């Protein structure tokens, strides 16, 4: 799938707006992800308030993409919806949703970036406060969105020395 290789992290965006229609399509792609026992415990918070972007940037210096992002979506888990409570599957479930969202954004011709939130306690605390997350709603990451200021090349990172056959260290391709 070409989109997988075309997806690159974009940290600078033009002023072209990202529409709610595009955001909805991206969230729809997130919700199409696989989840443990089909928990679908994800919650999506569309971030449009520039104050939230600014506040998050104060606790996460490597979030400068938020300075020009035209939209962003905070992906959280609602722990009360976990089918296997307390096991931490939500991290994998929400990560699968995040990746789907990045791919959908790429397919729509948008640039995107995964901004890490979990497990950094200061970022989690900041978002819990600014987005008023109730008890049991855990933030995983933010998908920043916008039109890229420049194209980044597609990438193939296949590394044959990290692929083994049956036992660790036994090369799959000889
Ligand atoms: C869990 C996770 C957290 C990340 N957090 C950040 C971040 O906070 N800021 C940032 O600029 N990039 C972040 N990235 C993007 C990575 O730096 C990027 O994916 C990596 O350098 C590979 O580049 P590519 O996405 O263009 O292929 C994150 C990626 C992942 C998967």
TrEMBL record:
Record-level Gene Ontology MF annotations: oxidoreductase activity
Lineage: superkingdom: Bacteria
InterPro entries (alphabetical): Nitroreductase, Nitroreductase-like, Nitroreductase/BluB
SUPFAM superfamilies documented for this protein: FMN-dependent nitroreductase-like (SSF55469)
Listed transmembrane segments: none
Residue intervals of the Nitroreductase domain: 4-53, 61-146
Species of the source: Frisingicoccus caecimuris
Name the record gives this protein: Nitroreductase
Pfam families per the UniProt record, alphabetical: Nitroreductase
């Amino acid at each position: 799938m070409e989109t997988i290789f075309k997806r690159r992290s974009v940290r600078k965006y033009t002023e072209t707006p990202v529409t709610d229609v595009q955001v909805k399509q991206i969230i729809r792609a997130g919700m199409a992800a696989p989840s443990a026992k089909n928990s679908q415990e994800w919650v999506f918070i569309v971030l449009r308030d520039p104050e939230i972007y600014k506040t998050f940037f104060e606790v996460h210096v490597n979030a400068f993409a938020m300075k020009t992002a035209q939209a962003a979506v905070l992906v959280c888990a609602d722990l009360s919806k976990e089918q296997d409570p307390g096991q931490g599957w939500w991290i994998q479930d929400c990560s699968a949703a995040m990746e789907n969202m990045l791919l959908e954004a790429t397919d729509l011709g948008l640039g995107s970036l995964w901004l890490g939130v979990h497990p950094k306690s200061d970022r989690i605390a900041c978002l819990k406060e600014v987005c008023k997350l109730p008890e049991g709603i855990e933030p995983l990451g933010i998908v920043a969105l916008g039109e890229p200021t420049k194209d980044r090349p597609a990438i193939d990172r296949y590394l044959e020395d990290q692929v083994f056959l049956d036992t660790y260290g036994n090369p799959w391709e000889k």
